[in-house]
Design a protein that fits this description.
Helix 1 crosses helix 8. This protein is α/β, with parallel strands linked by helices. The chain is globular and about 55 Å long. The longest helix is centred in the middle third of the chain and has 27 residues. The protein contains ten helices and nine strands. It starts with a strand and ends in a 5-residue tail after the last helix. The chain is 51% helix and 15% strand. The chain has a single domain, classed as 3-Layer(aba) Sandwich (Rossmann fold). The strands form two sheets. Strands 3-2-1-4-5-6-9 form a seven-stranded parallel β-sheet, sandwiched between helices. The chain has a two-stranded parallel ribbon with strand order 7-8.
Length: 263
């Protein structure tokens, strides 16, 4: 019987780690792709100790020019058949664009857009050979809106959303399902939680912890839901946002996210 793997990028901490644990809980063999360091080693040990699944790992910085190709070739060389690709790795951040260093934007473009795009391209032929293969891309509510002070990040997530929806149609007859999850605030670490709390009462209604997000995301994929927006309040915000004139919407978003600049 063929042995398949779920490959998850950025899976040594935060949302990626929660997804890796939830996938392992559901009996999937795991390939963790993340930056080298103690978080990676700890996550591998934790999964191995809790679940009877195969766990492989590849330490790499996905912003490197050859990184996506290196991940694919490593899988090919070890005969690791991937039937579920989860493009989770990404960088957020809040800053005035004109005050940001060019490297700040470059890293977000390289990881949030380029790495995801090229990994998907490299793995599609392999995914086509595995029955019921899936691709999950990590989007964001920011992808639905132009967000001041998250200028490059929100634009990158708009790309992820458009890319995923277009690819889903292209691969409709291939047997590969393409999915995207678009959370709002996600509690993953103390700094992120502090930034979320700058939004006051709204944060309690729109924020989800990473473990719950992972479970709900996989539940919805199993139901065949191609685009998933966690929490009712976030779905209501999206609906209202579509009704508002662009000028008012931008003014509200600028005021809301200006509060994050000090964190």
């Amino acid at each position: 019987m063929e042995q398949y793997y779920t490959l998850i990028t950025g899976s040594s901490s935060g949302i990626g780690k929660s997804l890796a644990l939830e996938c392992a809980k559901r009996g999937m063999n795991i390939i963790i792709v993340a930056l080298p360091g103690p978080d990676l080693e700890q996550t591998v040990s934790e999964i191995e100790s809790k679940f009877a699944v195969e766990v492989r790992h590849f330490a790499i910085d996905l912003t490197g020019i050859e990184a996506p190709k290196s991940v694919f070739e490593w899988c090919m060389n070890h005969n690791f058949k991937v039937n579920f690709l989860i493009n989770n790795a990404g960088i957020t951040g809040t800053i005035s664009f004109e005050k940001s260093e060019p490297l700040y934007s470059d890293l977000r473009i390289m990881l949030n857009i380029r790495a995801m795009t090229l990994l998907t391209r490299y793995f599609i032929p392999m995914l086509k050979q595995c029955p019921g293969s899936r691709i999950l891309n990590m989007g964001s509510m920011s992808g639905f809106f132009p967000v001041p002070y998250k200028t490059v990040y929100s634009a990158s997530k708009a790309f992820v959303q458009s890319f995923s929806r277009s690819l889903s149609k292209e691969l409709e007859s291939s047997g590969i399902g393409v999915f995207i999850v678009c959370p709002n605030g996600v509690e993953t670490n103390p700094l992120t939680t502090t930034r979320i709390k700058t939004h006051g009462r709204w944060s309690k209604l729109t924020t989800i912890d990473s473990d719950r997000l992972a479970k709900l995301t996989l539940d919805n994929i199993e139901k065949g839901k191609r685009i998933f927006i966690p929490l009712l309040m976030n779905r209501l915000l999206l609906f209202v946002g579509k009704m508002l004139p662009e000028k008012i919407k931008l003014s509200l978003l600028e005021k809301e996210f200006r509060e994050e600049l000090n964190y």
